Amino acid sequence: MDVLLLADTHWPRRARSLPAAVWDAVEAADLVVHAGDWVEEGLLDELEARASALLACWGNNDPPGLRRRLPEVARGVVDGVRVAVVHETGAASGRERRLDAAFADSTDLVVFGHSHIPWDTTTGRGVRLLNPGSPTDRRRQPWATFMTARIGSEVEGFADVELHRVERPAAHRA
Predict the structure, then answer these.
(1) Are 119 and 132 a contacting pair, CB within 8 Å?
(2) What is the per-residue pLDDT across 108-135, written as a single tens digit (0 to 9) for each?
(3) pTM (2 decimals)?
(4) CB-based contact 56:84 (threshold 8 Å)
(5) Of 18, 68, 8, 69, whose CA–CA distance to 38 is shortest?
(6) How far is CA 98 from the centre of its chain?
(7) Can you give the residue ranges of the Calcineurin-like phosphoesterase domain (predicted)?
């Protein structure tokens, strides 16, 4: 399966629309995973309408309407791979240990957000941890980002995890 990983879209506070490259990736993906901080329900509505499938959770900036519609931790099995999606995982220091304790017996992949900092590691117990960054709010990062991946039994779990840089339109560059 071709999977698009998103987090921290902060729509419409940080962008009036998702970048064109993200919408292209939505159209190409078999599954869109969003790790919270949507901010407004309109983006959830649009992704539900345009994505082939969606696995998503709410984040700390999401209002009650989004929290009613989405779980704090979303879980699914994607072509044999057990996936958990959560917004916050705490400080970078000790993250692998904490997530091993929380997810190792039930999860192969944890997708998370909150920091806006891309992350790709594997815990000591073998849980893959991915944070796609943010496609709309780069914060202290040089680029806004998102990830794509191939997930499933045909690739024995994960393959081709790729971090994509989001180019800002020329009108928005300083």
Answers:
(1) no
(2) 999 999 999 999 999 999 899 999 999 9
(3) 0.92
(4) no
(5) 8
(6) 19
(7) 1-151
pLDDT confidence band for 157 (50 / 70 / 90): low
- Residue 62 and residue 37 in contact, taking contact as beta carbons nearer than 8 Å: yes
Among 64, 136, 140, 75, CA closest to 103 = 75
AA letter at 103:
F
Residues 6+ apart with CB under 8 A from 21: 135, 146, 164, 166, 167
From CA 74, how far away is CA 3, in angstroms rounded?
Answer: 15
Per-residue pLDDT tens over the stretch 52-96? 999 999 999 999 999 999 999 999 999 889 999 999 988 889 999
All structural domains of the chain, each given as residue ranges with its CATH number in brackets, are 2-172 (3.60.21.10)
Contact residues for 163 (Cβ-Cβ < 8 A; gap 6+)? 118, 120, 132, 133, 145, 146, 147
The answer to whether residue 51 scores a pLDDT higher than 60 is yes
- Rounded Cα gap, residues 4 and 146, in angstroms: 8
